[in-house]
Amino acid sequence: GVRTPSLVAREVMAHTDHHLLVGEGAQRFARQMGFTIVPDLNTEHSRREWLKWKQKTDPEHYLDFDDERAYGTIHCNGVTAKGDVAGVTTTSGLAWKIPGRVGDSPILGAGNFVDNAVGAGGSTGRGEANLFSLASFLIVEEMRRGAHPKDAALTALKRIVANTVEKRLLNGRGKPNFQVKFYVVSKTGQHAGVALYGGSDATYAVCAASGPRTPAMDYLIEGTASGG
Ligand code: ASP
Predict the structure, then answer these.
(1) Ligand 1 contact, 112 CB (< 6 A)
(2) d(C-alpha 156, C-alpha 138), whole Å
(3) Whose CA is nearest to atom 1 of ligand 1?
(4) Is 153:184 a contact under the CB 8 Å cutoff?
């Protein structure tokens, strides 16, 4: 019910001893902190997307529903000139999920991890894969061992591939049939955007002293998630 959930997360960090508040309790906390609770977070676009989905799917067949799912996550890292590191992942979560599903975005070590001594990593894409491999934590640990952000992310992506064994998650080439992307920055300002699969949507935004740009991401696997 809150339009800026990452700001509520910051209040949890600033005003409580806890790491996670969820569900109704989280909403009550947000209200107490002065956030406006709205009854419907849909935009006109998301409402139309929902309507399309509703027309196509039978709610009893969650696993069989393989139509393209809508995602809407943003991960953002920052490093100051002094080397202080920050990161945030904000999301509505996977669209049309089973109510109650918790994705990777709010879970430290999965969708987002920051260590001010090392750097930050975060993710968009299939949250379940990140939850299974705690990929953002792995990325920061790899950087702690001296890896460049790109190599740290590639290591995490390889772990995800190794952990993806269920047939329903594999394409015809035996590779994951989903996309995951990582956004990584080190304490010294090195950065990388690395995806499981490349392609026209695999870009990331960087803003450094030289100005903003949107380079193509590096990627682990040739071809597409669907196996093409
Ligand atoms: N990672 C998000 C989730 O699983 C989805 C996304 O990146 O859009 O909820």
Answers:
(1) no
(2) 6
(3) 127
(4) yes
